[in-house]
Amino acid sequence: MGRLAKKVALITGAGSGIGRETVRRFVEEGARVVAADIDQEGLSRTLALCMDHETRDIPPVASCLLDVRNREDWQAGLAMARDRFSKVDVVANIAGIGVAGSIEELKLEDFQRMVDVNLTGVVLGCQEGIKAINASGGAGAIINMSSIGGLVGPSDIAGYCATKGGVTTLTKSVAMHCAERGYPIRCLSIHPTYVDTEMLDPVASELGINRADLTKGMAAHVPMGRVATPQDIANVVVFAASDEAAMVSGSSLIADGAQLAGPRSAHS
């Protein structure tokens, strides 16, 4: 407990899934958080979850409606963090969307939506995050949620892979930019395997199955035998934001249950 004590973070995608769990874990570890999303109802549930923390105290968390595609929303959200909590130390770009489809099946409008949220949203988060952290006068971190699809290219999620691959290399560029200019700001990307969140619901619906059956099938592709939980990935974000990761920048933190470690043994 207390690994993020005195840190102030803005976390996008906070209305569900990994983003919601990351808010909960940051509060649990002593951070003050602005939880950001376009889903007001989801944000309300996130705040209620934090209120249920075992101390029963009102947690140091606020919410704001933030469309990651909109620079003014970013500026307003970061201004809220400074006004409410005096500074910004961490920006966690977790908001994202996914649409399945091979390169031949991919609809241009679906691809553009993924570019807008998954990539343009992260670009804006990095740009405005650097300004806000520098203005706070302290060291900080920008954490970008990528995917194993940002490192390899499964054929059935071509557009998603393209956007997450962009996040992977953007992260490295931002890390180098900050280091070369002497900014005390780290930037790193996180690459989960399949995660059991609401993001899988439209995929399951398109396939005509329920999410539990979908995740069971996905688990067969993970050597450790299960898909990730939101807490599995939120724990990696906590590490990335903490002082324990002080020399980790420009790196890809892979949380994939050994999925990318290599082909399964042909001799077992």
What global shape is seen?
A: globular
User: Helix-strand pattern, N to C?
Assistant: EHEHEHEHEHEHHHE
Indicate the CATH architecture: 3-Layer(aba) Sandwich
Count the strands? Answer: 7
| Sheet of most strands | 7 strands, parallel
Radius of gyration, taken over Cα atoms and rounded to an integer in Å? 18 Å
Q: Could you walk me through the main structural features you see in this protein, from its secondary elements to its overall organization?
A:
The chain is of the alpha/beta class and 268 residues long. 44% of the residues lie in helices and 14% in strands. The protein has a single domain (8-193, 228-255), classed as NAD(P)-binding Rossmann-like Domain (Rossmann fold, 3-Layer(aba) Sandwich), CATH 3.40.50.720. It contains 8 helices and 7 strands, in the order E-H-E-H-E-H-E-H-E-H-E-H-H-H-E. The model has no long low-confidence stretch (mean pLDDT 93).
Question: What descriptors fit this protein?
Answer:
alpha/beta, 268 residues, Rossmann fold, single chain, 7 strands
Question: How does the SSE layout of this entry go?
Answer:
Elements: E1 8-11, H1 17-28, E2 32-37, H2 40-51, E3 61-65, H3 71-85, E4 90-93, H4 108-136, E5 140-145, H5 158-180, E6 185-192, H6 201-207, H7 211-219, H8 230-241, E7 252-255
Parallel strand pairs: 1-2, 1-4, 2-3, 4-5, 5-6, 6-7
Helix pairs in contact: 1-2, 1-8, 3-4, 4-5
Characterize this entry briefly.
The chain has 268 residues and is α/β, with parallel strands linked by helices. The chain has one domain: Rossmann fold (3-Layer(aba) Sandwich). The chain has 8 helices and 7 strands.
